[in-house]
Specification:
Elements lengths: L12 H6 L6 H10 L4 H8 L4 E2 H7 L5 H13 L3 E6 L5 E6 L1 H4 L2 H14 L14
Antiparallel strand pairs: 1-3, 2-3
Length: 132
């Protein structure tokens, strides 16, 4: 027979057990969001309450103003963050989590626990707000 027409033995249980499987659609969506640099840290910074742009920039060291603005816009479009303009002078903008944003807290707490138990300390630090 030709190579294409050969009969093959069915895969054994061990090879099936070691095969990778595609992640569920929901977890793919979660990591598409949280896997973006800075997104998780911005959400973590807002878990303790609303923050102004400058406060968020200080809370997330290394983030540029442009990137912070882009991430906040994205989080607002997804319904995780609200933007409120406080009339001035001076005019100030504050950001806070919506109910959907706050619903991430248990997952963030568990991720922090996992990191504390399984990641080396020099792999980064977790916000104190999630250490329960």
């Amino acid at each position: 027979m030709s190579e294409l027409g050969e009969l093959r033995d069915p895969p054994d249980e061990q090879s099936l057990a070691s095969a990778c499987s595609a992640p569920e659609t929901a977890i793919t969506r979660v990591f598409h969001l949280l896997g973006k640099r800075w997104t998780g840290l911005i959400l973590a910074a807002l878990m303790s309450g609303p923050g102004h742009f400058a406060e968020l920039r200080r809370a997330v060291p290394g983030i540029s103003e442009r990137m912070l603005s882009d991430r906040l816009t994205e989080l607002a479009a997804l319904g995780l963050v609200t933007r409120a303009v406080e009339e001035g002078p001076p005019l100030r903008v504050s950001y806070s989590l919506t109910d959907s944003g706050h619903a991430l807290r248990p997952a963030m707490v568990e991720l922090t626990r996992w990191a504390d138990g399984h990641l080396p300390r020099d792999a980064g630090t977790c916000p104190e707000a999630f250490r329960e």
